[in-house]
What does this fold into?
Amino acid sequence: MAAAVLQSGIKQANAHIEVASAGLAAMGGFEADAYAIKLMNERDLDINHHRGKQFTAKEGLENDLILVMSTAQQHMVEETWPLLHGRVYRLSHWGNFDVDDLYGRGEPAFRKALKSIDIGISRWLEIVTG
It folds into this structure.
């Protein structure tokens, strides 16, 4: 959801920034969760093509900015791949919240997470699109 929301904002800003999505515990090749698809469809954002992909050091080194959902994820990435330190930020870098892991959770949790994603993405869009 975060990648779709970010990509949409970048497109609206007419910026030329590439967005990719990968997870730290992603189940490679799996579709997005049905609740995520539903919420993105409500915004006319199509994530039906999305397939889970595992984050790797190679991917990290190929990107200037890595956004994670939580403090725990930030620490995990920076400890596992020290060369990425300084590129890894929480989506809510300017706020005092983490975006919860949604695996196996219901629609209310997805809606709550999407609100947090919107808040975090709005600030990052200001930064990356100028």
